[in-house]
């Protein structure tokens, strides 16, 4: 980032000073960085973030690198595409899948994160704490589903899925001990693993937004 390095870090520090509810560790994780990455920038342990790192941080904050340097923290939104949040997905809580909304509509709309295209994307809101600390209650998950099945790519990954009773879950999906069944794994060690579950479909989570970064349209 050459001569803009100091200005970017200064702007980043000003952003967190102005938004005390936003945690640097949460932003780091959402940007795909080590949770301590931004903290190290702010304390001077990392003096030169790469351009792509700065862009990823800015994207999570729904800003541009230039806005952070200029300390212009008016988040983008009005010109950005939106995605409908179709319903809730259970992370410990029991949630029935809701298909009551026409295509493109839902319980509310959120600004689509710049990291993904809104085309063919479905969004759901996490209810429950079985996936903490990966997904907090209120986190918005984005996924795409092309067919009604459990594709090979879903095995071993955290997915949004529907069981044969019509309940929607967010869990890590693993092959079950009996043919045609699956184990749904929780991240939270206090939550139980669900064994012998029959699924209608599963779709890997493509992107997630922590509650503090959800921007309703």
SSE arrangement:
Elements: H1 5-18, H2 24-30, H3 37-43, H4 51-60, H5 65-70, E1 82-90, E2 108-111, E3 122-127, E4 140-143, E5 158-163, E6 168-175, E7 182-185, E8 194-197, E9 199-209
Parallel strand pairs: 1-3
Antiparallel strand pairs: 1-2, 3-4, 4-9, 5-6, 5-9, 6-7, 7-8
Give a brief outline of the structure.
The chain is an alpha+beta fold and 217 residues long. It has helices spanning 5-18, 24-30, 37-43, 51-60, 65-70; strands at residues 82-90, 108-111, 122-127, 140-143, 158-163, 168-175, 182-185, 194-197, 199-209.
Provide structural commentary.
There is one protein chain. This protein is 20% helix and 26% strand. With 217 residues, the protein is of the alpha+beta class. The chain folds into 2 domains: 2-70, 434 Repressor (Amino-terminal Domain); 82-213, Umud Fragment, subunit A. Strands 2-1-3-4-9-5-6-7-8 form a 9-stranded mixed beta sheet, with no helix packed on it. The longest helix is centred in the first third of the chain and has 14 residues, at 5-18. It is elongated. The protein starts with a helix and ends in an 8-residue tail after the last strand. The model has no long low-confidence stretch (mean pLDDT 88).
